[in-house]
Amino acid sequence: MPKLIIDNLEIEVPEGTRVIEAAEKLGIYIPRFCFHHALGAVGACRVCAVKVLEGAVEGVQMSCMIDAQDGMKVSTTDPEAADFRRSVIEWLMLNHPHDCPVCDEGGHCLLQDLTVAGGHSIRRYEGGKRTYTDQYLGPLVQHEMNRCIQCYRCVRFYREYSGYNDLGVTGIAGRVYFGRLREGVLESPFAGNLIDICPTGVFTDKPSRYTGRRWDFERTPGVCIHCSLGCRTTVSARYRQVGRMEGRFSQRVNGDFICDRGRYGFYYADRPGRPRSGRISGQTVSVDQAVYEARDRLQRITEEHGPQAVGVIGSGRSSLQTQSAMVHLCRTTGWQGPVFRNTRITGAAADTAACALNPENAVSMRELETADAILAVGADPVNEAPVLALAMRQAQRAGAQITAIDPRPLEWPFDFEHLACRAEEIGEALASAAERLSDSRRPVVICGTEITDAGIVLQAADLVAGLRGSGKTAGLFCTLPQANSFGAALLDECNACAADLAARVEAGQIRALAVIESDLWHDFPDRPQLEKALEKLDLLVSVDFLDTPLFEKADIGIPSLTVFEAGGIYVNQEGRAQQVRPAHTGGLPITVTGAGDHPPRTFAPNVPGRDMPAAWVTAFCLAGQAPPETDAQMTAWMRYNFAVLSDLARMDADGVRLFAGGKTPIAHEATMPEKPEQCLELLLAAAVFGGEPMSDYSQCLRELAGLPAVWMDRADADRHGIAAGDRVGLGFENGEVSFVVRISDHMAPGVLVVYRHPDIDWQPRAGDTRYNIREDRIRRIEKA
Amino acid sequence: MIRAGIDIIASIAAGFYTTGRHLFVRPFTESYPEYKRPLPARSRARIILTRDPEGRERCVACYLCSGVCPVNCISMQAAEDSRGRRYAAWFRINFGRCIYCGLCEQACPTSAIQLTPDFEHIRRDLLDMVFEKQDLLVDHCGKDPDYDFYQHAGVVTGLAGKGDHISENAPVNTRTNMP
Amino acid sequence: MWFWLLGYLVLMAKITAVLTAVMVLAAYLVLVERKLLGRFQVRYGPNRAGIYGILQPVADGIKLLLKEDLMPEGADRAIFLAAPAVVAITALMMFAVVPFGPRLTIGGREIPMVITDINVGLLYVFALSSLGVYGVALGGWASNSKYALLGGIRGAAQMISYELALGLSIVPVVMLAGSFSLVDIVNAQAGLPFILVQPLAFGVFLISAMAETKRIPFDLPEAETELGAGYHTEYSGMRFGLFFLGEYVHMQVMGALVAVFFLGGWRGPVLPPPVWLLVKIVLVVLFMIWVRATLPRLRYDQLMNLGWKVLIPLALVNILITGAFMAA
Ligand code: SF4
Ligand code: SF4
Ligand code: SF4
Ligand code: SF4
Ligand code: FES
Q: How does C93-106 read in b/e, with b if 16+ C-beta sit within 10 Å?
C-alpha cells in the first residue's frame, strides 16, 4: 500500500492506483478528458498534468498514467502544471467550433467546464478550424464530429468495454475521426452510452435533441423498469414531461451504463393517447366517477354471486406498492387472485427462480463481473436483460470462460461457447455441461425464465448448491420477465395464473375481472380463448397507464400513474428492492395543454390531469378503504402487513435485498409436449427492441426493430431451399405471417426463432411462445 | 478623553452641517412626466428579440438567458426547424417579474435578446405583462447590426455546410494517410 | 348649575381646540418631515398631491382609511386590535396638562389655559409616556410574527432604559420650580428659561425624549433594515395609521415638554402665548427631523451603553450639583 503526498495531504492507496484516482480520494479533482474510472487511462488528452516533486519520475506528468508510489510527492497546483493544463485546453479549442449555444452538451459539457476553469476565453489563434463531415448513426445518437477532442473514450467504450466493432477510429494526425467504419446505424444496443461518455457534444441524444438544458431539467434518481435488472437511471423531466434518460452509477447494479431500451423506452409516459380520464362504456368521465362506478359494480357482483365471482389480475411491471395493495384488496374482499403472471410455464419458472434465490447464492451484476466461469442456461442477456451482457463481457475480458446452452442464434459481444440445443433438451445439456465449472473458483450460473421451465431453474439452483458444497463461491443469477416479477413472486398468495382465471371465466365461475397494469393482451398465449373469456364477462375493469387494447375493451377504464409520477419500489431479479422517487408531479404536460404552441395564457391553480391516482390508491378504493396518505405511510403499511417486506426498513442507497425465505413457488407441471415429427418448433423470443410492451411505444426504438424476421438453422433452410434474405410465409391456423429469413450456423436445428416485433400481434396466430409448425406450412414468397 | 469628546462633538456637528447645508442646495431631481431625459441606447428597459442582418430570427433558444435570469422570468422551448436551425418554438418573458438587470442580454451569445430604453410599458392587467415571442420580436438588429451567429457556428443549418462557415477549413478526408 | 355647565363647555372647547391642533399638526408634521428629509437629501420630497404636495396628508389619510385591515393568522385578536389605540390615546392624553398660555380673564372669571392643571402633572406625563410603550410591546407580541416580536421587545427594553434618564434629568427642574405642576414650572421660568440654568438637564432630556419617541437614531423597535417594520410589521390600514399618529403626537408632546421645562413654555414677547408654544414645539420637532436626516441608527449595545453609562450618571451628577447650589 503506497503512501504518497498530494498537495501536502497524505494518503495511502492500494497498489496500482493511479495518481488521479488517489487525488480524487482526497477530494482533489484533477481535470481529465480521457480518463474514466470504468474505461481506465490512455493518456490521450494531456489535461491531467500534475507536477511530481519527488518520486521516480519528476517533473510534469500525466496523473492518469502514473501509478501512486511510496514516498511520492505531487503538486496539482504547481504553476508549471497549471500552465501546461491551460495550454492543453487552448490547443484543444483551436479547432473547436463556435457551437455551445446550439450544442446539446452545453451545460453539462466537460470541455466547457474545463475551458472556463482554465481561464481560456479569448481565441488567439487566427487560422481556420478543422472540420469533419458527420455520419447518420441512427435514430438515437446524433453525430457532430467537429466537436471532438480525441479523448478516445467513445471507441474504448464501444469496442473494448461493450464489444461492438462497427464504430472506430480512422485517419491520422490532425484528421483522426471517430465514427462508424461503414455507413449505417450503430449496431450496439448500448450505443446511447456514447452520449454520456463523450466529454463533449460529439454524440448527443437525438430524440431529445434541442429540447432542454440540463439545468432546466428536474433530475431525479430513477430505476429502469424495462427489464428485470433494475438499472439505475437519472430521469430528466421538464414541464411535467420526461425528456431524457441517463445512466446513473450504482455500486451494485449496473455500474455506469444502461442499455438503449432503458434509455429510450420512456416515451410511453407522455404519449398523446395515454389514458388520462376515466371511461365507462366508452364514455369519458372523471377519474373519481370511474373508480366509484367500478367499486359499486364489483361490490354488486360480489353480493349477487359471492366473492369468488371476481378475479384480479396484476403484473410484474407494477410497483411493489401496487402489488401489495392488490393482495390486500383480495384479502379483504375475498376476490380471486391477484395473479401476477400470465402463463403457467414461464410464470412458474419465474416464481421458482425468485424462490430459489437466497442470501448465499445471490450475486449482483457487479459481483458477476468478477466471475471466472459463467454458464448461461436458456438466457439471452442481450435481448432479455441487455446490461447483463455488458457485465458478462467484463467477466470475459478478465478471463472468464463463458458457455451458453440455448436454442437461439445468440449474438453476444464477447467470446463464448454456444451449446445449441432445443428448449426441451436444455436440462440434459445442463447436466452434461456442469463439469465445465469444476475448475473455476467463482462460477456463476445464469438462468433465463423466458424459454425455460421451473424444472430447469431448479436444476440450475441445485447445480449452484452443489458447487457451493464443493467449496466454490458459486452464484445463481436468474433473469425474470419483468421489472418487478420478483416482487410479485414475494407477494403472490394464490397458486394460479391468468390462464387459470380465464378458464374459470369460461366456466362461468368468474363474472368480473379487475385487470391492473397488466400486459395480459400482449402476453396471454391464447388470444381466441382470451377473447372468448372477455366476451363472457359481466364486467371488465382495467386500470393502466398504457392504452392497451384491454384498456380500450374494458367496461370501466381507470387511468393510473407511471413510475415517473408515482415512484414506487421495484425489486430486481436479485431481490434488490430499489426505491424510485417521482420525477415530476404529473398532470398534462405543457406540450399537450399548449397544443404544441406556447403554454396556455390562462393561469389556474390546478394543473389539468393531476387528479389521476396511482394504481395502488385505486386498489385501496376498490376495496372501499382509504389508502395511506403519504408514500412513507404506504411503505410502513407494507412492512407491517407483509412479513417478506419487513426488511424494507433497512433500505439505503444500494436498496435492500429481499428474499422469499421458505416460500414454495407455485406448482409447475410438465413443460411443452414433445415435438411431433415433420414439424419445426417455432420459438417466440424477446428482442432488445420490440417485445417489451412499454418500450414498444417509443418511436425511435421501433425504428431500430427492423423488419420482422425468422431465424433458421442452415440445415433446415437448405432443406427448404431457402436462402438468407428470402421472404417466407409461415402458415398458422388462422392466417399466414410473412418474415424475412435470417440464417444462422449456431442455433439449434429444428427450431425457428422469431424475435418479438412491435408490428406483429402474435397471440391470434401462434397461441403460445412455442408453437409447432408443420414443415409444409413454410412457404417462400419472394427470393432475396 | 477630553480630546475624544471634542472629536465626537466635532464630527457630529460636521454631520449636522453637511445635512443642514443641503437645505440650501437646489435638488437634483428631474420631475419625470414633465421632463423626459433622453436615455442612452444601452439603458435597460423593455426587452426585444432582434433579427440577424438577413432578417432571420437570431435567437437559437440556447436557454442561457433563462438560465442566468435571477428572477426566472424567461421561459422558452427550443426546437429544430426543417433546415436544422435551432430556434425558439415559443419564448415568453414575464415582465411582471423582470427586474431589468440586463443579465440576459449579457449572456446571449447571438445578440438576440436586447434591452431597450423604453421603460414606459406598464399594463393594468398583470397577465398583459407576459410577452410572447411575437410581442418580443422586432424586425431590426438592435444595437448589434452585423452579427449572425449561424455564420460562425459549425453546425449545418441548410445555409452553409461543413467548412463553409467563417474561419473554417474544408472538411478533411479521413480516408487518406497522406500527410 | 349653569356655572357648572359653562365650565364643562369651556373644558370641551379647550379639548376640541387642543385635539384639532394636535391632529392637524401631526398630519402636517409628516409632510414637513418628508419634505425636509427630501431637501436634506437634495431632492424634492412629495410634490404631487396638490401644490407643493400640500394635500399629501389628506391623500395618505384616505389611503390608510381605505386599505384592508389585515390580521395575521394566529394573532391574539383583542390585543392586536387594541395595541395601536393604546399608543395613540396615551400620546394624545399627555396634552391635557400642557399649559398653552397664562390664565385668561373673561367676564371676571379666570380661565386657565390648560385643559387641566393637576398638581402632579409631571408625574402624569411620565406615567402616560410609559404606558404608551405597552402599545408597542403588546402590538409586537400579538402579531405572532418574529419581526414584530423582536421590535416589541426592543421597545420595552429601550423604554426602561430611557425612562430613568428622562425622569432623573427633570428632577433639577422640579427642584428649581418647587412643584410638579406644569403650570407652576412655566411660571417659574418667568425670569430665565431653564435651558440657561440647566443646560445639562436639557441635553439629557432631549436625547432621552428622542429615545422615548423611538425616532432615529433610537428607532431600534422598528429598524426597517433589520426587522421589516419592527413592532408594526403586521399592521395595515388605519391601525398602522394609529401607530403612525401616535408617533407624531408623541413627538409634539416631547416638543411641548421641552418647551415647558426648558424653553419657558408659552412665554415670549410680542406674539400671543399659544403661538409661542407652537413655535417652540415646532422648533424642537424640526430639530428632531434634522437629527433623523443626519445620524445613523445606534446599535443595540450602544443604545444601552448611552442610556445606562452616560445619561443616567450625568443626570444624577446634575441633581447633586443643583442640590449643592440650592443648598449653598
Ligand atoms: S461540445 Fe461543449 S464546448 Fe463544444 S460546443 Fe458543445 S457545449 Fe460547447
Ligand atoms: S467523439 Fe467524444 S468520446 Fe470520442 S474521442 Fe471525440 S471527444 Fe472523445
Ligand atoms: S433583464 Fe434580468 S430579470 Fe429581466 S429578463 Fe433579463 S435577466 Fe431576467
Ligand atoms: S440567450 Fe439569446 S439566443 Fe439564447 S435563448 Fe436567450 S435570446 Fe435566445
Ligand atoms: S486524463 Fe490523463 S491524459 Fe487524459
A: bbbbbbbbbeeeee
Say which of C43, C44, C294 has its CB closest to residue B19.
C294
Question: Among partner residues C40, C44, C295, which is closest to B29 by beta-carbon distance?
Answer: C44
* Burial class of residue A752, CB neighbours in 10 A (0-12, 13-18, 19+): buried
CA A179 – CA A137 distance, rounded (Å): 8
Q: What is the pLDDT of residues B46-103, one digit of tens each?
A: 999 999 999 999 999 999 999 999 999 999 999 999 888 999 999 999 999 999 999 9
Q: What does A183-231 look like in DSSP terms, one character per residue?
A: SS----TTTTHHHHH-SSSSEEESTTTTS--GGGSEEEEEE--SSTT--
| Selected residue with higher pLDDT from A379 and C13 | A379
The 10s digit of each residue's pLDDT in A152-172 is 999 999 999 999 999 999 988
- Cis status of the peptide bond prior to C217, with omega within 30 of 0: yes
Amino acid C323: pLDDT: 87
**A229 contact partners, CB below 8 Å, separation of at least 6:** A253, A254, A365, A385, A387, A388, A479, A572, A573
Range of the domain at B62: 47-152
To the nearest whole angstrom, how far is the Cα of B140 from the nearest Cα of chain A?
A: 21
Residues in A 125-144 with any Cβ partner in B closer than 8 A? 126-134, 144
Identify the CATH number of the domain defined by range A347-480. 3.40.228.10
φ and ψ of A115, to 5 deg:
-65, -45
Atom nearest to A30 CA in ligand 5: 1
The residue in chain A having the minimum alpha-carbon distance to the alpha carbon of residue B128 is A601
Contact status, residue A410 vs residue A384, Cβ threshold 8 Å: no
pLDDT in tens, A679-731: 888 888 889 998 788 999 999 999 998 888 999 999 989 988 899 999 998 88
> A564 pLDDT band (50/70/90 cuts)?
very high
ipTM attached to this prediction: 0.88
Q: How many domains does chain B have?
A: 1
C6 domain-assigned: no
How many angstroms separate the Cα of C169 from the Cα of each of A269, C215, C312? 80, 19, 8
Torsion angles phi and psi, residue A443, rounded to 5: -80, 150
C277-307 residue pLDDT tens? 888 888 988 998 999 889 888 888 888 888 8
Q: Give CA separation, A146 vs A108, A196, B46, B110, B170, in Å.
A: 18, 18, 38, 20, 12
Domain membership of residue B159 (yes or no) is: no
Is residue A256 helix, strand or coil? coil
The answer as to whether C46 is a domain residue is no
Ligand nearest the Cα atom of residue B153: 1
CB pairs under 8 A between A and B: 116
Superfamily covering domain A127-270: ADC-like domains (2.20.25.90)
**CATH (residue range A278-341+493-561+612-646):** 3.40.50.740
Strand, coil or helix: what is C96? Answer: helix
Q: Residue ranges of the domains in chain A?
A: 3-92, 127-270, 278-341+493-561+612-646, 347-480, 679-782
pLDDT class of C214 with cuts at 50, 70, 90: confident
For chain A, what's the residue count?
Answer: 784
Q: What's the gap in Å between the CA of B13 and the closest CA on chain C? A: 10
Give residue-wise pLDDT tens across range A254-286: 999 999 999 999 999 988 889 999 999 989 999
One-letter amino acid of A778 = I
A3-92 and A679-782 share one CATH topology?
Answer: no
Are residues B159 and B87 in contact, defined by beta-carbon separation less than 8 angstroms? no
Q: Which helix (H) or strand (E) holds A477?
A: strand A475-478
Residue A534 to residue A544: CA distance in whole angstroms? 17
| CATH classification of the domain holding B95 | 3.30.70.3270
Is residue A672 scored above 60 in pLDDT?
Answer: no
Amino acid (one-letter) located at B73: C
